[in-house]
Amino acid sequence: MKASRRSNFLYRYEIITLVRQRWIQFLVLILLGLVLFAVVNGKQKVDQRLGDIQEAQQTVIEKDSLGVILLDSIEAGFTVDVPRWYMPNQPHVVGYNYTRVAAMPPDNLAIIATGQSDIFAHYVQPNLYGESFELNYTELSNPVQLMFGSFDLSFVLIYLLPLIVIAFTYNILSAEKEQGILQVIASHPVSLFQWLLQKSLIRYLLLTGILVVLLVASLSVAGILLFSDFDRIMIFILLTMGYTLFWFVLACLVNLKGKSSANNAVWLISMWILLVLLVPSSVNQMANSLYPVPSRARLINELRVVNAEAEKKADELLENFLRDHPELAGFEGGSRGWKEYFATQDLIKNEIQPVLDEYEVKLEQQQAWVNRLRLASPALILQNSFNEISGTSTSHYEDYRQQISDFSLTWRNYFLPRIFKGEAFTKAMMVELPEFEYQPSTSYGQSAGNTSILFIYCVVLLGFGVVISRQSKIIPSS
């Protein structure tokens, strides 16, 4: 009973101290400002991404409407004042000019982490001929923005939240020692380690309570339906709590060494630089060095060389193509030039496929490397998880790339028989054109596992804290 009263007294004393020092007010204001700005910034990026997709889709609708009008006039026997290469009654014209939008809409939780969405394209329009969409899959992004990243929730939680924890805890024990209060506390029947844990627990609960309320409120204001993504939001909150707890426990360990407040601050800032900046950047740099992705310039150069060689032996390639595709052979209609063109495209694709495969393999190896070494830093664990929860991870974009690759083949296979038959494209066929439908990934198992890893780290650090508390002499002898 007495121990419980002492514990309650310590809790009340710590809360009163924090209120008098205006720490709670400071926390609410700074977290409110950071979270709101990050959510607004993330929402703007998501809205811009949606706007780009909707604008492209609207362009397709308008072009389809014009195409239907032209086809209707052609089928009615009217003269259409349109250049021959824009006449929509030719299948190859429709296959090139009336492309569909193969888009990857932003996930419901995309405002949490920008992830790879600044690097990869979020919509493409595979056409029947011309440069392969594989060459345009990545965007030319602003290098300054890529260097500093985006100010989203993941940036606030991964980079700035530890600094707030450090400012909140760096002198949690050393200040008492420097003010001479520690010897008075040590005279009571409570261990200093237990007293430090109680003080840290109060601050942790205050900080995480304020943070969780602000995060949930901000996501709700941003229009996210919390109950529709309850599982992922819970993982997101638990990850944040685990990451915050890690830095609180780390601060306890530093305080247990019994050094000055200035010394504690230097040690904690050094740990922040190491775990949040140096380790993640080193892991990414090592991934790029060990598994370099083939350059786009090399791919374009090889494409041009193969294309020039293919044009020299178009007749031979056409015969081989028809031998491999008997369903397209035996038709008298259609332009021989177009037949030779599509026959050469198969050769070109086969020639550059090894480079494309190498790109995919290297990207997978890079991702596997980062996944293996993510345990070296809680910041890597959190970034990996936030990207997965937000649908902006590398694996999400690789899955999207595979889907548009499959759709590109479907689009091509729709037109080739009509081109080889010399069949005219009609108004009725316009509604039969293949449409792309993105299938989002629903796997978030790694994020759930990462949550457990963060809390395991905290338990291990607490074990070190017990050992340090038994070996350290925090209170100087009088």
Notes on the structure:
Helix 9 crosses helix 10 and helix 9 runs parallel beside helix 17. This protein has a domain of 161 residues. The protein has a two-stranded antiparallel ribbon. The chain contains 17 helices and 2 strands. With 478 residues, the chain is mainly α.
Give a short synopsis of this structure.
The chain has 478 residues and is an all-alpha fold.
Shape: elongated
Largest sheet: 2 strands, antiparallel
**Average pLDDT rating:** 79
* Helix content range: over 70%
Distance between the termini: 32 Å
Topology summary:
Elements: H1 2-20, H2 23-75, H3 91-97, E1 102-103, E2 123-124, H4 143-148, H5 153-169, H6 174-178, H7 182-186, H8 192-221, H9 230-256, H10 261-290, H11 296-312, H12 314-324, H13 336-373, H14 378-390, H15 394-421, H16 427-430, H17 445-471
Helix pairs in contact: 1-8, 2-5, 2-8, 5-9, 5-10, 8-9, 9-10, 9-14, 9-17, 10-13, 11-13, 12-13, 13-15, 14-17
What key phrases describe this protein's structure?
478 residues; mainly alpha; disordered C terminus; 17 helices; elongated; two-stranded antiparallel sheet; 1% strand; 2 strands; single chain
